[in-house]
Design brief:
Elements: H1 3-18, E1 21-34, E2 37-49, E3 54-62, H2 65-78, E4 81-82, E5 94-98, E6 101-107, E7 114-115, H3 118-127, E8 132-138, H4 142-154, H5 159-174
Parallel strand pairs: 7-8
Antiparallel strand pairs: 1-2, 2-3, 3-4, 5-6, 6-8
Length: 177
């Protein structure tokens, strides 16, 4: 195997990694108390998206902040899911819930922009949503807000998907063996 062939997969992986939008939402220092004293570690909440309807989130944990951030981004890339979009906004209004956090997401007309606070804005930008209205209700914990936003975005369905599902139900009801 020549030297050029061994570097191609690595270069392709780096090129794909550069296409993702990476957003670091928060870094949290965690102190764990043991008999010998305190042990410090870090949590990094990261969101990764391709800007075309795919987004993933992860909480990276490590003893060093840089390692936690790197872990968060790689885990977020592995956990990416597809979101239904309608142009630059979402197809319909939806409420996402996780623990004590609620996030209300509403579609907006073109040119409105992203009207959202910190964690919700990061998820929407990474996903590729350009026009949306949102309101965070309940707890303001960043991790819970991100999970509530993703919960709401995963509940979205396009009208075509709903019509197709209804057609299948009608076809099954009409089938008489």
């Amino acid at each position: 195997m020549t030297r050029g062939e061994s570097q191609r997969p690595r270069a392709r992986a780096e090129q794909e990694a550069n296409q993702f939008l990476e957003k670091l939402i928060s870094i949290n220092r965690v102190a764990k108390v043991h008999k010998g004293g305190k042990r410090l570690s870090f949590d990094a909440l990261a969101v990764v998206g391709d800007g075309k309807g795919r987004v993933g989130m992860a909480l990276g944990k490590a003893n060093e902040a840089a390692d936690a951030i790197r872990k968060g981004f790689t885990q977020a890339q592995r956990s990416m899911v597809s979101i239904s979009l309608k142009g630059t906004t979402i197809p319909h209004e939806v409420t996402g819930r996780f623990d004590a956090s609620k996030v209300l997401l509403k579609p907006a007309s073109p040119g409105t922009g992203i009207i959202a606070g910190g964690p919700v804005r990061a998820v929407c930008e990474a996903c590729g949503i350009r026009d949306i209205l949102s309101k965070s209700l309940g707890s303001s914990n960043a991790l819970n807000l991100v999970k509530a936003t993703l919960n709401g975005l995963l509940c979205l369905q396009t009208s075509e998907a709903i019509q197709q599902r209804r057609r299948m139900v009608v076809e099954i009801a009409d089938f008489n063996p």
